[in-house]
Amino acid sequence: MKRQQIHDASTRDWGRSSSRLLAGVLSLALILTLTADTWARSSGGRYGGRSGFSQSRSGTFRDGGVSQRPAPMTPYGPSSPRTYTPPVSSPGFGYFPFFLPFLGWGGGTGGGFGFGGILGLLIILGIVVVVGKVLLQNLATARRYRPGQPLEGRAGEDRYVLVKCQVALFSTARALQRALREQAHAAITDTPAGLATALQDLVVALTRYREYWRYGTVQVQHVQRIDEAERAFNLAVAQERAKLSEELTVNVDGVRRHASMQQRAPAAEVGRYLVVTLIVASGYPEFAAYATPSLQELEGTMQRLGTLLASDLLALEVIWSPENPDDSLTEDELLTEYPELSGL
């Protein structure tokens, strides 16, 4: 009886020990998993700004301290050629004695109303119609673009667009890291003109390293209201920032910050990558999305972004990772953090 009790006690102790061991193994595996996810995230840098949103709402652009009203931000579809319409005087009563005698209506003793009179009447009515049409068009334009009025799209129109371009390059393009860091320090990020210049410089820098492009994506979101565009922009930026372990170089809306880099052993260059993310909010909605873009489609989208005017640009965010020159992403880390990328 005692031997059976001892055996049962040993069995219970073994069961408890096994449970503790299993719990310890699971806890260690969870810790390693979370730690590995942390290690997968790399350092990064970012620069950009949102000054175009506030200035588009107010209807003024201030560059160099000068306030000027921009051209009306109408949808940038195919435009009809502009023609010049000479000013036409409104036919008042003072013109009747001059025109009508020659047209056969009035001026005679019988006051005849023949062919000449009908032709004169049609001419006068045509002049009245032209003048009235011009006045109505000017009135409609003045009502739509009165100063201080928010520039919203008409019902059913996609007035604004959010474009996110990402490109993963082979890590041998180390000079691009230095170029992005220099551009982040030099960029003027609190004016639309400065953002437009920074965007152009970025497109030029990326194009110079076109032969290093390996993965890419182009995502486009069209919205009707400027508030929707700003919310979509903020969400896209927050999602990309969450992929970074730390932000070393920051220049956003004129606020600059720089953290020192930790010394690391240089990473191997084979099978390693750098990622550059470009997020643009614009009042120029003519962009197309590409789930699996070709090299030419990705380059064409970037070139089109580089041609945006300051008045078209609402916000810009440039994020690159990693920033530390001794760091890079493996292909597994790249595709885990950026699953939307596709091979070029």
Description:
It is a single chain. The chain has helices spanning 2-40, 51-58, 96-103, 115-144, 174-186, 192-208, 226-241, 295-306, 331-337; strands spanning 42-49, 61-63, 66-68, 160-170, 213-223, 244-252, 255-258, 272-282, 313-321, 329-330, 342-343. It is α+β, with helices and mostly antiparallel strands and 344 residues long. Strands 1, 4, 5, 6, 7, 8, 9, 10 and 11 form a nine-stranded mixed β-sheet that branches. Strands 2-3 form a two-stranded antiparallel ribbon. The longest helix has 39 residues, at 2-40.
Structural class, by secondary structure, is alpha+beta
Largest sheet: 9 strands, mixed
- The level of helicity is 40-55%
User: How are helices and strands ordered from N to C?
Assistant: HEHEEHHEHHEHEEEHEEHE
Number of domains: 2
Total E-strand runs: 11
The percent range for strand residues is 15-25%
Mean pLDDT: 75
Q: Helical region count?
A: 9
End-to-end separation in angstroms reads: 76 Å
How large is the radius of gyration? 33 Å
Unreliable segments (pLDDT under 50, ≥5 consecutive)? 25-40, 61-113, 140-155
Shape: elongated
